[in-house]
């Protein structure tokens, strides 16, 4: 709170940045944006490859600042991470996601997913807070998938593991994101209370050009199946990749070929049209 206050004061004194992306003023703007709920969300569908039905939507956050323009998550998420703003950001994302989900056609037959970082999982009250936010809007925990990166999931810090276990016991589903980019062992993976593995897009995007990528994706899908987990390929950009994934027995696909991440209203319209087609 002290750091946040300092950052906000800094912002209020309207110090002009020497360069547009100087870190301090950007952090102050980000803190303000989170506080005033000015971050927005976009949604990207996860499609069941076999039935072609949309079964889930991943929630991704967006920051559009009137002065700085649109700042990519790969820039502002690490910034929020290193300045203690991730808990507030995640609360803001979950609120908006729930508001959207209860009014979306997906509510009746699908689920949604949000991303959680390590700095959120160390919060011992996180599981209770997420549960309260969901139940408050009548959303069953089974409807929400929590995506954590491979390195976060394998973080042996007691608090992280506790939070993930608590979330699982409450009925939330857990997904390992960016799988293949960390260094988890099979033993570690088997110990986690997981329901889904998301194969990192760096492998999926190279499926056609790299024999190694093909082997890695194939092995990951088999392993997921063997462990009773859903396999998701992210970064599916064309029909050839989707067909390869289908022949490998991958459960779900996500990527620009199906849809880019869309703002809430646009996503719902897209979904209705997709279902009608
Ligand atoms: P991620 O969780 O791995 O999300 C997938 C990223 O791949 C998204 O980037 C998405 O827009 C992009 N993507 C989807 N389909 C395709 C495709 O076919 N081709 C390519 N090249 N890219 C595709 P985005 O939205 O820029 O987010 C980047 C990362 O920022 C996310 O990676 C996630 O780690 C983080 N992030 C975004 N929003 C949040 C959030 O609310 N909380 C947390 N903790 N992290 C977030
Ligand atoms: Ca993700
Ligand atoms: Ca990912
Ligand atoms: Ca990623």
From TrEMBL:
Q: Phosphoprotein: is it a keyword of this entry?
A: yes
Q: Keywords for this entry?
A: Phosphoprotein
Task: Give the GO terms filed under biological process for this record.
Answer: phosphorelay signal transduction system
Give residue ranges for domain EAL. 23-275
A GO molecular function held by the record: cyclic-guanylate-specific phosphodiesterase activity
Q: Under which name does UniProt file this protein?
A: Diguanylate cyclase
Q: Which organism is it from?
A: Comamonas aquatica DA1877
Question: What portion of the full-length protein is represented by this chain?
Answer: 115 to 391 of 398
